[in-house]
From TrEMBL:
Family indicated by similarity: Belongs to the bacterial ribosomal protein bL32 family.
GO biological process, one term: translation
GO molecular function, one term: structural constituent of ribosome
Family matches, as InterPro entries: Ribosomal_bL32 (IPR002677), Ribosomal_bL32_bact (IPR044957), Ribosomal_zn-bd (IPR011332)
Keyword Ribosomal protein: yes
One CC-aspect GO term: large ribosomal subunit
Keywords: Ribonucleoprotein, Ribosomal protein
UniProt entry tagged with the keyword Ribosomal protein: yes
Protein name as catalogued: Large ribosomal subunit protein bL32
Amino acid sequence: MRANRSHRGNRRGHFALKGPRFSACKDCGASHLRHRVCATCGKYKGVQVLNVLAKVEKKAKKAKATKAESGVKN
């Protein structure tokens, strides 16, 4: 049977992409992707999994070092 426009359209009507699902963190209230660690507080299901403060400090230190190196080269 030939698939005419209406049959094809009915089948393709379910192909739409859906956006990501967000949940609110129980501790800090920030939104995060489901089943992922909260990037704001570093907790997953109420358990501290990630030290966010240490990551931020390490990133700042690395950026500062990179900035200093780029200044020396010029």
